[in-house]
């Protein structure tokens, strides 16, 4: 037992980060030295309902309560202390998407997540109007598409927000959002640290003939930079998290953030010329820019760090879902043989097989498209594995192919930054569950992106730990201390993570795979067109 951590708990000096990821709701409690005291998680899944990817927000509350209950029990078991007072709390979640509430705070339509590719017309119109890339995932694209579709609920909107903003509102009653997450709702003015006023005016003019009682500014959450107080835990919020009644109200909350922002914090990548990679159901790379890009690119989003610096973001909608599905199949076989499967061992054994593969994956091809893929131009997806009679079909090549496929769409987007905009990428700091198996994910990633990849010791904790650090920054920073300085001097020190450089043979192998991947995209297109979407049991 760590005595310092126990004293932090007793004195109420620990900070809590809660992140609503695509497959898990996770909580991490850290002490004043940013060491994890306890962590817990709750699994949940999105659903495709009436053509929209969504999550049940009632399950979000249930998951929050279950995650906190498990965390509280872990603290009790290890330290013999009942968790009552916490120094600070932060909520983060999948960025973007669309949550619309009426004046009573009731949900007007089911939560529309970032995964939906249903706003093509709106995104195109707004991109041209603003002369600024508006991705289909962004909240403003969802709102404008609902307007173009004449959806009745739009007239009754009182507030729109993201998932992190919604949970924060439940806990505090405050309509707040961190700059990073806000930059995925609507373009922000980095110098003013708020939404772009000119573009908001342009939007209001665009919909003036609709006669809505609201203006855009009136229904968006207020923006806050990292380190600013964004609300306090209400009595109702405390009971929402902890129905047992132990948790005290009045705890300050930092600005709620998106998973991109917490990824930047977890990898110490908020300074200019730094980059980070976040791997999960989706995959995105982010580079803090020194200057604006010379053009608007469909494949590149411009967002912000939690403290407001401009960031070029390349996001592919699909990454690890297909790998997880295949691992599930191997688990079934293992258990059908009468053996008990250990998840960590299963991942470790199968991932390490990829190191024995042919450099290019043996002529195999995979598209893990569970949803549409913006970078390659697909509105819908079909997970697909293809081989020719001449392909070298074995387990090692099978695993390497799926790992390469997880990075392929991202690489196509990154090439724009490196080849057309000449953005220098000296190394990438990565985090996410794919890197829990030592070295393998890093090695495949370094080959795919042709850049050294470092993984921090906190890689497995990911965004929830990064959110806890942002919560700690709120109450433990020195007066006027910038976030980058806080991370560099207090959180990470000289820790650079374990770096893996690209292997020349692997880089050449991935180049062959990527050529095959690009040429095979019509195969994916045919699957989308001809494979029916709904199967009846």
Automatic annotation (TrEMBL):
GO molecular function: kinase activity
Keyword Transferase: yes
Keyword Transmembrane: no
UniProt keyword annotations, A-Z: Kinase, Transferase
CDD domains in the record: ASKHA_NBD_FGGY_BaXK-like
Domain Carbohydrate kinase FGGY C-terminal, residue spans: 276-473
Domain Carbohydrate kinase FGGY N-terminal intervals: 16-240
Domain of life: Bacteria
Protein's GO biological process: carbohydrate metabolic process
Family statement drawn from the similarity comment of this UniProt entry: Belongs to the FGGY kinase family.
Designated name of the protein: ATPase
Species lineage: Bacteria, Bacillati, Bacillota, Bacilli, Bacillales
């Amino acid at each position: 037992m760590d005595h310092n951590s126990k004293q932090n708990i007793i004195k109420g000096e620990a900070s809590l980060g809660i992140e609503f990821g695509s497959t898990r709701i996770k909580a991490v409690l850290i002490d004043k030295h940013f060491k994890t005291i306890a962590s817990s998680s709750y699994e949940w899944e999105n659903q495709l309902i009436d053509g929209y990817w969504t999550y049940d927000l009632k399950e979000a509350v249930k998951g929050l309560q279950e995650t906190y209950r498990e965390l509280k029990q872990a603290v009790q078991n290890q330290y013999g202390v009942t968790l009552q007072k916490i120094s600070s709390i932060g909520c983060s979640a999948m960025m973007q998407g669309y949550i619309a509430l009426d004046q009573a705070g009731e949900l007007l339509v089911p939560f529309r997540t970032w995964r939906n590719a249903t706003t093509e017309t709106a995104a195109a119109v707004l991109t041209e109007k603003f002369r600024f890339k508006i991705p289909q995932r962004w909240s403003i694209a969802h709102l404008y598409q609902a307007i173009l579709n004449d959806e009745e609920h739009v007239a009754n909107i009182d507030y729109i927000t993201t998932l992190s903003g919604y949970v924060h509102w439940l806990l505090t009653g405050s309509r707040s959002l961190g700059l990073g997450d806000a930059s995925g709702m609507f373009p922000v003015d980095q110098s003013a640290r708020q939404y772009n006023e000119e573009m908001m005016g342009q939007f209001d003019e665009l919909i003036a003939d609709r006669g809505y009682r609201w203006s855009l500014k009136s229904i968006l959450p207020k923006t806050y930079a990292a380190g600013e107080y964004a609300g306090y835990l209400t009595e109702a919020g405390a009971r929402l998290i902890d129905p047992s009644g132990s948790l005290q109200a009045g705890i300050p909350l930092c600005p709620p953030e998106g998973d991109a922002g917490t990824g930047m914090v977890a990898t110490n990548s908020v300074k200019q010329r730094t980059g980070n990679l976040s791997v999960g159901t989706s995959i995105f790379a982010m580079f803090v820019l020194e200057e604006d890009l010379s053009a608007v690119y469909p494949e590149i989003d411009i967002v912000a760090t939690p403290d407001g610096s401009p960031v070029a973001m390349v996001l592919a909608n699909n990454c690890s879902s297909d790998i997880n599905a295949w691992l599930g199949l191997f688990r079934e076989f293992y258990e059908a043989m009468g053996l008990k499967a250990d998840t960590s061992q299963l991942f470790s054994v199968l991932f390490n097989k990829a190191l024995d593969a042919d450099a290019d994956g043996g002529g195999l091809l995979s598209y893990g498209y569970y949803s549409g893929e913006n970078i390659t131009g697909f509105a819908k997806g079909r997970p697909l594995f293809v081989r020719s009679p001449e392909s070298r079909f074995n387990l090692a090549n099978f695993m390497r192919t799926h790992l390469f496929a997880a990075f392929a769409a991202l690489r196509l987007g990154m090439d724009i930054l490196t080849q057309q905009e000449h953005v220098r990428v000296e190394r990438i700091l990565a985090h996410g569950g794919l890197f829990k198996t030592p070295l393998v994910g890093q090695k495949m990633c370094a080959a795919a992106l042709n850049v050294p990849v470092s993984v921090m010791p906190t890689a497995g904790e990911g965004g929830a730990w990064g959110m806890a650090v942002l919560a700690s920054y709120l109450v433990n920073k020195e007066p006027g201390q910038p976030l980058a300085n806080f991370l560099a001097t207090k959180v990470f020190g000289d820790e650079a993570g374990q770096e893996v450089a690209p292997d020349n043979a692997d880089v050449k192998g991935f180049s062959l795979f990527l050529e095959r991947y690009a040429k095979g995209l019509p195969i994916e297109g045919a699957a989308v067109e001809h494979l029916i979407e709904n199967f009846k049991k």
